[in-house]
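S.,

Sequence below, as promised.
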Amino acid sequence: MKSLIRNVGLHTVEFLKTFGGITLLTKQTIKELGSKPFYLGLTLEQVVIIGVQSILLVAITGITSGAVMTLQFGYGLEKFGGKLYIPKVLGLSIVREMGPVFTSLMVAGRMGSGIAAEIGSMKVTQQIDAIRALGTSPIKRIVIPRLIAMLICLPLLTLFADLMGIFAGMLVGLEIGLEPFFFIEKVYEGLTFNDFWTGTTKTLFFGFFIVMIACYRGLNTEGGTRGVGDSTTWVVVTSSISIMVGDFFLTKLFIYLSS
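The prediction came back faster than expected:
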């Protein structure tokens, strides 16, 4: 019993320490966000790394999600005579939930681990200390370019994933007897601007979670190369959990705001 209480206490302290550290990093990032100098070149470089180089991964995610969901809804609703509702259900599911969440999880796995590994390697090789010694803020050079790039790219990647998912659903719909023009028309009828707004806005929060968690862990990496590996694993798990938990509360918030 004492061991259980001690473990719970240690995990609670570790959680509070991590949460406080991320909060302080967020505060410092917001404080330095509008001050000079602005590293436009570094930001554009991160846009390419986060956005352009993630297009194929996001496309595959969107296509497979749309295709599988169409098959599941198709053969499931067909038993109850609801085959004609498949396009609307698919469009709402992808735009509101599947697109934002799946895209964010894929980007978290790819870029969250990459950011943590890169910054963690800089930390253990004392490059972060060298940046400070030169009179430059690591937050300005490292955190802010990645944050801005993520906030730009993740919503766009999500919209692209939505498009790929609906397109894949349209193709699979041919197998269950739904004409492409009918499919697209019903998807269009079932979606509103509010659906796109809520789904895309979620990704701004998800992108913020990914970058701040990854940067915090990277800047606090210790233990050499083994510590870098531990940091990458921790970031992927933590950011994925943050996305899933955050999605629940954001969904409740948007439902409340739209009611």
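Residues 126 and 201 are 37 Å apart (CA to CA).

Coffee later?
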